Amino acid sequence: MNAFDRRDFLRYSGTLGAAAAITATLNACSGPASTTTTGAGGDKDLVTAVIGYGNNQSWDPTMTASAFSMAANNHIYEGLIDTDPITREPYPALATALPGDTSATSWKFSLRQGAKWHDGKPVTVDDVLFTFQRVLDPQANTLVRSFFASWLKEVRAAGDSAVELVFHFPFPDALQRLTIAKIMPKHVFGASGGWDEAKGGKAVGSGPYKQTAHNPKSNTTFEAFADYNGPRKPAIKKMNWLSIVDAPARVAKISGGSAEAQIADNVPYANIDALRKQGLTVEGGKGMNHMFLMFNTANKPFDDVRVRQALLYAIDTKKMIEVALKGHGSPSTSFLNEQNPSYAKAKTVYDYNPDKAKQLLAAAGVSNLSITLMAVNVSWIADCLPTIANSWEAIGIKTTLEPQDTSALFTKMDQSQSYQVVAAASNPNQFGLDADLILRYNYTSGGTWMKYTKWDGSPEAKNLFQLMDAATREPSPAKKLALVHQYLDIIAEQAVLYPVVHTELMTAWDAKKLTGVRPQAYPGITLLQAKRS
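^ that's the sequence the OP posted. Answer follows.
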């Protein structure tokens, strides 16, 4: 098994790669629209979807955060427990029932009788053990490992058709977390080179849809799995997902009376009104999707918390939302977005206050500061950058903007090249909503992001990580939430990696041809309960 490569993470992750696809143009990642497939036309058995992300990234469910792959895998694979993609309510998938006592330190699950892989072979206990061994393997160091390793001790057989999950301590949040561990067939991916094949696009699951063709940079096709006997029966017989990162081409596929597609995600804000006038439904989802600033605390004066705070107070976020986001955003009042169940307004909120910013810089003894703001070349991020530059210039900070290709930017950081401040995007809601998961995505001791900030060896960071561990272990929901709010206040105050704005993601569809669609607040689409009409 290959160790997880951080460049793969950044290339494949929704943290950056998925957010990058919100762009109007992102030439470095853009692939051509399908030229070998036709639209649904009069075929009411087929749904053609336009996905604004590349389908040529990792498809390994244990490694990927690719928006296209994750959305597709949610249709192809099952966990023991899955969650509704919109409400996040858990339901039994490969398991036959939810655990009776979520405060217990071990949970037993019976597997669904008659469940089959898409190649016709039966789903077995060995497949479940194989998957969780991969998830927990420190040598494999999978992307999803950080979501399980702190609380899950082991998974073992409990008979011919049952498994037992053994915890280090009671962890009720595991109920929703289990959907991340998509069960995979040992006979396919346990074979020599299996994980490389998974990364390259091979997908064999037990879910409602099976992959029928995969053409990187073009399209991926699916059909309903005839032998699927699970809880969410597919109502659509065939699907063709076109990978079109370029926004004008994506919008064109769903526009007009002869539109090839019935649904598109990543709708640019500038196109919303025009699409609605054509009779399409365009709805959004508000979630974690955000632009953040990340500081190199090993580079003075960014080791001084007052300087980091000053730079956030100086940004006119309301103007940014009005001009760059066309109103589809909210100023950050916490690391979490306001719709998150664990949200609380932080004690430190960076309202636009240039006078306070000047005072903080003066108190830190900083003057004549020059900043090079490096950023991913995501168009909506690029649209936000002038507001940041103008805001910083207004308080006497000379600002140089350097938007660049995402992979090039983070390759520099992987190589420990010097930088001052970075603007990028993130949306951990692809994995879940609980605060523990979201914060560990960025704030993990020794993790990728903390290595970039060079902050996790500080006393403040060590205190934060202790509080996060205490919250993870805390059995009382009220006490846990209090600890979460406590460490969210620390993250806000320290402003090492912190959101500036949270944005809304838009989905458009033809309600005359496709019903049951629910827009997501994170990248991708779900058609598990949709119907072609």
